[in-house]
Write a sequence for this structure.
């Protein structure tokens, strides 16, 4: 039987940790399969998609800058991809190329693991209005969080999201007053990434029961999470979102739902800290 083949594509792609995650699972479950990183320039992406089946791939992951092009280029899309407006996972069903989005799933599964019952903790304040915030807001809606407040410097971008998801929209200057009764604070911006040590928000205004999470995972503890932890709040880092979003794709391509284990997390943490 032919080896089962999958991939991750982006431009650039060398930084991707997906091959390590899927390679770990392939080895752990003794599956005859491969998962490779393929750098595809934007101009070549459409022809790359068309040739997937002929090249023996069962599917793969799509990352920056191809998520919107994948959304436009697949034959069918799942509900999450339609809601989020981007595709990060590809697979074939009866010869038809499907596109899905597992980022919202990954976000929710990470919180399920480290802060069970989180969805009942709302209202939720979401920092940022980029592609990642769309996945987060979709996950919040799926879990019936009713009061979702998007905070962004550029109001026009946030307003588009607010219309799409039925969330309220606020400028950054309103952040302090929005946090007073918020049970969830979610950073989807790049603030706090290595090289950008700005505090995304001051968790001092949050109530004591609030949960603070950051989708940034390099560093694992961002300035926001450090400030929230110092205040005694429950914090959840962003690495679990990366690990959990990989689960549905692996199951589709290789026929087994993998577990996100402490060993897998430790391996990826060691890789992050080694760079």
């Amino acid at each position: 039987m032919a080896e089962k083949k999958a991939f991750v594509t982006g431009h650039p792609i060398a930084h991707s940790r997906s091959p390590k995650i899927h390679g770990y699972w392939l080895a752990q479950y003794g599956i005859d399969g491969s998962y490779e990183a393929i750098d595809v320039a934007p101009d070549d992406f459409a022809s790359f998609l068309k040739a997937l089946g002929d090249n023996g791939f069962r599917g793969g992951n799509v990352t920056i800058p191809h998520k919107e092009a994948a959304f436009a280029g697949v034959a069918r899309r799942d509900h999450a991809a339609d809601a989020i407006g981007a595709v990060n996972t590809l697979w074939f069903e009866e010869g038809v190329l499907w596109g899905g989005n597992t980022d919202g799933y990954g976000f929710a599964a990470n919180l399920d693991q480290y802060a069970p019952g989180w969805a009942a903790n709302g209202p939720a304040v979401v920092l940022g209005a980029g592609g990642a915030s769309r996945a987060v807001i979709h996950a919040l809606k799926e879990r019936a969080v009713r009061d979702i407040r998007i905070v962004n410097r550029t109001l026009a971008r946030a307003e588009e999201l607010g219309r799409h998801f039925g969330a309220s929209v606020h400028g950054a200057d309103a952040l302090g007053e929005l946090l007073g009764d918020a049970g969830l604070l979610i950073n989807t911006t790049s603030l706090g990434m290595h090289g950008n040590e700005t505090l995304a928000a001051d968790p001092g205004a949050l109530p004591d029961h609030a949960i603070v999470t950051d989708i940034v995972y390099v560093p694992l503890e961002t300035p926001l999470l450090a400030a929230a932890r110092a205040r005694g709040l429950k914090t959840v880092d962003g690495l679990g979102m990366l690990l959990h979003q990989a689960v549905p794709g692996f199951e589709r391509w290789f026929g087994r739902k993998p577990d996100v284990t402490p060993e897998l997390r430790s391996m990826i943490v060691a890789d992050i800290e080694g760079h």
About this structure: The chain has two domains: 4-101+246-273, 105-237.
